[in-house]
Design a protein that fits this description.
Layout: E1 2-4, H1 7-11, E2 28-32, H2 39-51, E3 56-62, H3 66-69, E4 77-81, E5 103-106, H4 114-126, E6 132-135, H5 138-145, E7 155-157, H6 161-168, H7 172-177, H8 179-190, E8 193-196, E9 202-204, E10 209-211, H9 224-237, H10 242-268, H11 271-286
Parallel strand pairs: 1-10, 2-3, 2-5, 3-4, 5-6, 6-7, 7-8
Antiparallel strand pairs: 8-9, 9-10
Length: 289
């Protein structure tokens, strides 16, 4: 059965914000992201999580890009990763406190060299079985190269069709023609929630299929997916289930694009503009009676 996500439905999913709370009440996220050529991905995926309500975000990124990000994102903390001369991860054993975080997000702008692949797979193997994870972009591309089995219970993966083609080793055109089928196969194979991005993004737990109804061409721009990673991670950190985090996150992200486009046109919306419009998307959702 296919279900379409609407504003009334996602209104019921909004996490409760208790007055008697502190930053730990709304979750700690470790965002593993970025490289020397993609420092913007690390910034966008971290700041969007805070803007969506997460209490704490620590960015694990190559040490050489921290000085770029810290001045424009004073709200996030950093976990420096030793990097190669090309500004990518060089050591596969660099994070020892993974289980101190409520959510691990990984992949935005990480690149796909051999050392980074080993780092990502090693990190996934270290996580306890109930750890909540969001995997996007190069997290998926590196996972696609891995020959062993990885199960991603309690995780959300967010491929676009090309990334899903690599992950499943299925022809790109076949993916495009059968999006619901292959999204469901992905969730069944990896035991995860799959967000297959595109027009009318598909979200599935391997059985139920949900179709998003927000968003427009403004989202077809570099960095948009990084923002989505942060948004979904934030809802996971605020104790929503992986499925509900994906449903609410995809809808809110698309709605932010719709609202931004009303002011800026679909031509001129930047990924960073999406972050600025997240509060207005919340207002819109909360206005439903």
């Amino acid at each position: 059965m296919v279900k379409y996500i609407d504003k009334k439905f996602v209104n019921s999913l909004l996490p409760i914000r208790n007055e008697d709370s502190h930053k730990g009440s709304f979750g700690k996220i470790l965002n593993i992201a970025g490289s020397v050529n993609y420092s913007g991905a690390a910034f966008l995926s971290s700041v969007s999580a805070l803007k969506t309500g997460a209490g704490y975000v620590s960015l694990a990124c190559p040490d050489v890009i921290i000085d770029r990000i810290a001045p424009i994102a004073p709200e996030i903390t950093f976990l420096p990763l030793i990097s190669t001369q090309s500004g990518t991860v060089s050591d596969v054993n660099q994070i020892s406190n993974l289980n101190d975080f409520d959510v691990i997000s990984m992949g935005c702008g990480l690149t796909t060299n051999e050392q980074t692949q080993k780092f990502i797979i090693n990190t996934l193997k270290q996580l306890h079985p109930n750890q909540k994870i969001v995997i996007d972009a190069d997290g998926i591309n590196n996972l696609a190269k891995y020959k062993g089995e990885i199960f991603l219970k309690n995780s959300v993966i967010t491929p676009h069709p090309k990334e899903l083609s690599r992950l499943l080793h299925v022809n790109f055109d076949e993916i495009i023609e059968n999006r619901e089928k292959y999204a469901r196969i992905t969730s069944q194979t990896y035991e995860c929630i799959t967000v297959l991005k595109g027009h009318n993004t598909i979200i599935t737990d391997g059985e139920n299929i949900y179709i998003n109804t927000t968003g427009n061409s403004a989202l077809s721009k570099a960095g948009s997916g990084d923002v989505l990673t942060g948004v979904i991670s934030a809802f996971l950190a605020q104790h929503l289930s992986p499925l509900n985090s994906a449903l609410l996150g995809v809808f809110l992200h698309g709605l932010s694009g719709d609202l931004a486009s009303e002011d800026l046109t679909e031509y001129s919306v930047l990924a960073s503009d999406l972050i600025d419009y997240i509060p207005f998307a919340f207002y819109d959702i909360m206005s439903v009676e």
